[in-house]
Design goal:
Distance between the termini: 11 Å
Shape: globular
Number of helices: 10
CATH architecture of the largest domain: 3-Layer(aba) Sandwich
Bound molecules: phosphoric acid mono(formamide)ester
Number of domains: 2
Structural class: alpha/beta
Radius of gyration: 19 Å
CATH superfamily of the largest domain: Aspartate/ornithine carbamoyltransferase
Helix content: 25-40%
Order of helices and strands: HEHEHEHEHEHEHEHEHEH
Number of strands: 9
CATH class of the largest domain: Alpha Beta
Length: 317
């Protein structure tokens, strides 16, 4: 297995099964700290730099919380408008990263341009973690999600997934890359204008991902173990920021999960994951049902970032 020490986490394409398994093992080892709200000094000498060019609640704060739990320190920006990258100068990623690498030991970057963290990694002498890039990928979120499913189900192999929402979403891309490493079938549901591209379908088919495109959650909801959701009422992820409008629309029933549908049609032991934030595609009445796992998923967001930071910064092998 390739060492994680000093490694960038940019994509789940090419992430090997034994690497997933090692990350999950380290997450298991570190989870008690987060669960017991305790800190350790594993990364006491290290600094995390957050470079967020797009809004975030979970990804930035989970990385920061993870670093603090491990005894490290945190600096960075949550709004590029307050940096030279977002003002008159429009400072390049190359120049910005040449600064950030002097300020810390690992950079976590979210950007509206697909490939921006990869560009940062070209120039940085320290590891770069992709915290979501445009419509590209969101590898740390999907590692969190797979870890949550493994914890809940005891296995990933043999499971059937329903992936519903906007298939341009970066989580969906990382998920479909990751599933190539497991014996899993994915049913994919999205509005036609948000469908997987032919190029992406060819790519994941060649990687061995087993998937089938279906029209509505109603067609397959009774056949799946995992319901994995994203909104279809979405901002444009290629923009730094998009304000809400009064007419942003509602989710059609084909792409929506409610308590009523789950109770009528889903398997008894099906679980619902959603990386959040949600719109109306996942109704709040699901929150108190046996199906909901998105709060566990949110907690595991800290655990997974602890595991990744410990591995990348060489505190765990
Ligand atoms: N799931 C996720 O990426 O959330 P944030 O946009 O709040 O980071």
């Amino acid at each position: 297995m390739r060492s994680f020490a000093g490694r960038d986490i940019l994509s789940l394409k090419g992430f090997e099964r034994n690497e997933f398994e090692r990350v999950f093992e380290v997450a298991d080892e570190l989870a008690p700290f987060a669960r017991n709200r305790q800190n350790t000094d594993l990364l006491a000498e290290k600094i995390l730099v957050t470079a967020f060019y797009q809004p975030s609640t979970r990804t930035r704060l989970a990385h920061e919380a993870a670093m603090l739990r491990l005894g490290g320190k945190v600096t960075g920006f949550a709004d590029a408008k307050m940096t030279r990258a977002g003002d008159f100068y429009q400072e390049s990623i190359k120049d910005t990263v040449h600064m950030l690498e002097y300020y810390g030991d690992v950079i976590v970057m979210r950007h509206f341009q697909q490939g921006a963290p990869h560009e940062a990694a070209r120039w940085a002498s320290i590891p770069v973690i992709n915290a979501g890039d445009g419509w590209g990928e969101h590898p740390t979120q999907v590692l969190t999600d797979l870890y949550t499913i493994l914890e809940e189900k005891g296995t990933l192999d043999g499971l059937d997934f329903l992936l519903v929402g906007d298939m341009r979403m970066r989580t969906m891309h990382s998920m479909l890359y990751a599933l190539s490493q497991f014996d899993v079938k994915a049913y994919v549901v999205s509005p036609p204008e948000m469908a997987l591209t032919e190029e992406f379908k060819k790519e994941i088919t060649e990687m061995g991902t087993q998937f089938e495109v279906v029209n509505s959650v109603h067609d397959v909801i009774g056949d799946v173990d995992v319901i994995y959701m994203e909104p279809v009422v979405q901002p444009d992820y290629t923009k730094a920021r998009q304000e809400a409008t009064a007419d942003k629309g509602l989710t059609p029933p084909e792409y929506k999960i409610t308590k009523e549908i789950l109770l009528k049609k889903a398997r008894q032991d099906a679980i619902v994951l959603h990386s959040l934030p949600r719109q109306d595609e996942l109704t709040v009445d699901v929150d108190d049902t046996r199906f909901a796992r998105y709060w566990v998923e949110a907690f595991n967001g800290v655990v997974m970032r602890m595991a990744l930071l410990a591995l990348i910064l060489g505190a765990m092998e």
